[in-house]
Design goal:
By secondary structure, the chain is α/β, with parallel strands linked by helices. 36% of the residues lie in helices and 11% in strands. It has an eight-stranded parallel β-barrel with strand order 1-2-3-4-5-6-7-10, surrounded by four helices. Strands 8-9 form a two-stranded antiparallel sheet.
Length: 362
């Protein structure tokens, strides 16, 4: 009879139980490497992909787009829904081009402050759909105007905006995309021309990570004299006190056709309007508005929303932002002669305008 083997007694140790490794923390996006990002609002005419190609050809590192037609509730010719395949192709192409951040500007018809229940409900639903499309496209920020208080009660309007955003984000999946409230020029009963109002909205939505997008033309038209060195410094103090400069990851760099305090929203080419080139140089090189620690915000984006009156205006405005920020040597090479507006398109637009004018007269 063979000898019985002396086997060790196996004792269960709870520490031996299998524990799956936790999901690794996602890496920060490449555009957060610390440098200032510069771009322009590009057209989605034809497809969302065209906006990416235009941004790359114009020498941008960032871009802003509409997700649908911004002046129609139904989205016009561009379908309101974006298929999963289209969204993936867009995200993949953007990664290849190295563009970021991607900013989406919400529909102009949205009025989150509307006292009229029907308009406010429609605005909340439309903004919710903007969020859905933004997440699908992999957007980093979505900018929205707060709206207008048609009953003339700005305090109630601020509360309405806060409540509307909270309703729009209900049941949204966790995402890194941030909502940014844009300041306004103060036309009519628009909310948000005072930085205190923007700050109240941001503070009221702090739990949702909401920030602000500041437009230079709107600031100037609302009475903030960013044109002078002292005026810029005092405006930055107000921004920091009311909103917090760390909550302003996107700046719309637009010159103004309107004089200081004119309260009308009319954009001009960078450096060619009432604000002027030297003022933009101060703004774009100011440490507190930059993208470097300790004073700046890594990845801060400077986006132009300037008119394209003639072919090449878009390319010139992007080049102006790079030059005035002192970063021309870091700018991607723009495609020579490229513009979102072609000579043929300009001619067609002029003819349509002529026909519309003739029709009005008749």
């Amino acid at each position: 009879m063979s000898e019985e083997m002396n086997l060790p007694v196996m004792v269960f140790d709870p520490e031996d139980e299998y524990r799956p490794e936790p999901e690794p923390e996602p890496l920060p996006p490449a555009w957060l490497e610390g440098g200032l990002r510069i771009g322009i609002h590009t057209s989605i005419a034809g497809s969302h992909m065209n906006a990416l190609e235009s941004a790359a050809k114009l020498g941008c590192t960032a871009l802003q787009i509409f997700s649908v037609n911004p002046r129609m509730w139904a989205g016009g010719a561009i379908a309101a829904r974006i298929t999963a395949a289209e969204a993936k192709a867009f995200r993949d192409r953007r990664a290849v081009l190295g563009l970021g951040p991607l900013v989406i500007h919400a529909n102009y018809l949205i009025n989150l402050a509307a006292p009229a229940p029907m308009l406010r409900t429609r605005s909340i639903q439309s903004f919710h759909e903007e969020l859905v499309r933004g997440i699908a496209l992999g957007a980093d920020f979505i900018v929205v105007h707060p709206g207008s208080c048609t009953d003339g009660k700005p305090e109630q309007a601020v509360r309405a905006v806060i409540d509307s955003v909270k309703q729009a984000v209900k049941r949204q999946p966790p995402t890194s995309m941030r909502i940014l409230i844009e300041n306004t020029a103060g036309m009519g009963s628009a909310v948000g021309s005072r930085l205190e109002e923007v700050g109240e909205i941001v503070a009221g939505l702090n739990a949702a990570g909401v920030g602000a997008c500041l437009d230079t033309a709107h600031l100037f038209a609302a009475g903030y004299d960013i044109r002078t060195p002292s005026g810029l410094e005092s405006t930055l103090e107000v921004i920091d006190r009311t909103i917090g400069l760390e909550n302003v990851p996107v700046i719309h760099a637009n010159d103004s056709k309107i004089a200081l305090g004119g309260r009308v929203d009319r954009h001009e080419h960078v450096g060619k309007g009432k604000i002027g080139a030297e003022a933009f140089r101060r703004i774009l090189t100011h440490p507190r508005l930059g993208a470097s620690y300790p004073e700046g915000l890594p990845g801060r984006a400077i986006i132009a929303e300037t008119p394209i009156d003639d072919p090449g205006d878009d390319r010139k405005n992007v080049a102006a932002l790079w030059e005035l920020s002192g970063l021309s040597e870091k700018a991607p090479t723009a495609e020579k002669g490229y513009s979102m507006l072609t000579a043929a398109a300009k001619k067609k637009a002029a003819e349509l305008a002529r026909q519309a004018k003739k029709k009005r007269k008749s």
